[in-house]
Prior knowledge:
The complex is a heterodimer of chains A (167) and B (208). Chain A has 167 residues and is mainly alpha-helical. Chain A is 68% helix and 0% strand. Chain A contains nine helices and no strands. In chain A, α2 (16-26) packs across α3 and α7 (116-126) crosses α9 (142-162). The N and C termini of chain A lie far apart (44 Å). Chain B has 208 residues and is mainly α. Chain B has six helices and no strands. Chain B has helices at 3-12, 33-61, 66-96, 105-142, 151-156, 162-205. Chains A and B meet through α1, α2, α3, α4 and α6 of A and α1, α4 and α6 of B.
Amino acid sequence: xxxxxxxxxxxxxxxxxxxxxxxxxxxxxxxxxxxxxxxxxxxxxxxxxxxxxxxxxxxxxxxxxxxxxxxxxxxxxxxxxxxxxxxxxxxxxxxxxxxxxxxxxxxxxxxxxxxxxxxxxxxxxxxxxxxxxxxxxxxxxxxxxxxxxxxxxxxxxxxxxxxxxxx
Amino acid sequence: xxxxxxxxxxxxxxxxxxxxxxxxxxxxxxxxxxxxxxxxxxxxxxxxxxxxxxxxxxxxxxxxxxxxxxxxxxxxxxxxxxxxxxxxxxxxxxxxxxxxxxxxxxxxxxxxxxxxxxxxxxxxxxxxxxxxxxxxxxxxxxxxxxxxxxxxxxxxxxxxxxxxxxxxxxxxxxxxxxxxxxxxxxxxxxxxxxxxxxxxxxxxxxxx
Lengths: 167, 208
């Protein structure tokens, strides 16, 4: 597909929710999320020629964004110390304006304990992708997607339950 | 856990903290493993080409005895030919991967295949080079006029006692092994770490 830089950026802005959600799924830290979003935009621009317009721009954007997030590695940062507070303590300390916000925060926190492929699977499941679409996006067999997705959902529930936040 | 509710919450979440660039020039350089490997390879090609020129110019800057000088040029010529061989393979690799777009499973698989092929050629070149390099280094240090008499000719024509010869052979082999491992560790630090990261992703994508 041929697009000028401004047309491309305009399309990205229209679908910026995809960038926001993918980056939220993959990183907690705001600067890591920003780096990932930049990388996704770069990869989208580089692979724009491969988009033939047969599918929707948003479907293609989901695929590129997820595959970029899977291969993206955040920069190593020096941590102030090695002590890590238990998850439930960290969550309890944070101030949330309402219950919905807290539920989403708990979900994102739990998701951080999944590996990159599990994150991609659960994200696509939430977004309503079919098993076939997930398989195509990740280059996996539909059977493999089904098994891994079921395991991931179970794992996610366990993580949330362990953190005493069943919802 | 109600995933529909989660989706609803995700969709309604504020996106105020998401700052999109107004122009693509503002974007940072790609940090993807594929882009990093390509960048380092470009740097290595340039460095090795400069090194060839420097090594060939060196005997013109210092006064050397005739035999070590001739041996130096012959060995450096062969080493440079081998170096150019694997540099050509690296250029082939860079050309093949110049249009890598989406980082899909197939792209990663092809990339790993190509980088491994290139690294095999690189390692073969390094093994051969590490056998020749100690002689060139000996030419420089033992055949330079400023370091005294021409010890190199004596050494090269094996004019030494049996025990000294054994020591020289052992020293030579140690040098070869040292140069080889140093280069392999260096190559692993430059490329291997990124290749392993990509391989880990492939393992996670594998069938259960």
